[in-house]
Every structure is written in C-alpha cells, then in structure tokens.
Please model this.
Amino acid sequence: MNRSHRTASVALDALDRAILNRLQDGFPLTPDPFADVAREFNCDADELVARLKRLHAENAITRFGPFIDTVAMGGAFCLCAMAVPVDRFERITEIVNGFHQVAHNYERDHKLNMWFVLGTATPGEIDTVADEIEQATCLRVHRFPKLEEYFVGFRVAA
Model:
C-alpha cells in the first residue's frame, strides 16, 4: 500500500541523479544490462544495484521494473476506487492487495479513499476480479474503465 509516500526528502548525490535520469530513458535488453548501464557511469553493476535498492528503500523511487503493455497482449486495465471505513482500512488493504491483479493501491483523502488499478489477462476478468473483491470486503468497487489512451511520456528530472 502506498500511503502517498509521506516521507522526508531523500538526499541524492550527482551519481544518483544521473542514474535516475538515465534509467527513465530505458534499460538495455542485453545479457548483462546492469553492467552495461554501470559502465556509462564508471561504476560496477554491484554499485548500481545497491544504489537502486537504497533509493527504493528510501522511497526516492517506488518501483524499478518494466512497464508491460498488457492491453497489446490482450489484457486489460481498470482504475478502481472504494469507500473504506477508516477503522477497517488496514484489513481491507490486506484483502485487496491479496489479489495478484491489483497494482498501484493508494490511500486518498476523499470519500473514495482507496484507489487501485486492476490488470488482468483478458478484459472479461476485470469484472470477475472486482466482483470477487466486493465479496471478500463487503464493499462496492467503483470501476472507471479507460475510454481513450494517451501517451504522456512522463519524466521527472532528478
């Protein structure tokens, strides 16, 4: 569960910033990609991996991994939201996050205070999984299906 990353700011050195900026442009598909990227910064793969692990542990980055185009592979995504009673929030979080189709689960300051994304292998599974979450939590899952896709090309300068 991502609680909006309410943490102190993280101190980044010049190499941390360079690595974060570089990795937003892609990761090589080679036999030893960490070593290939590390060479660009005159460090070794172990240091690169250690820095990424530290940046993740400090919440400077929330994830490091590929973005798979599930829709191009026949799957589907759906933004979902729930109104979760505050006294049940932690338990409901455990239940919802127990579904392997759930990603990007965030708490929000709103009547609909839990927002997450469902990613499924087929479009028909969205309703099946949302219905299963409703049964498991006894709460309604509001579904906000994508109507149109836009490529934003989002980047953050470190």
Q: What stands out?
A: The beta strands are 76-82, 102-107, 114-120, 142-145. The chain has a mean pLDDT of 89. The two ends are 24 Å apart (CA to CA). Helices lie at 14-23, 33-40, 45-57, 89-97, 125-137.
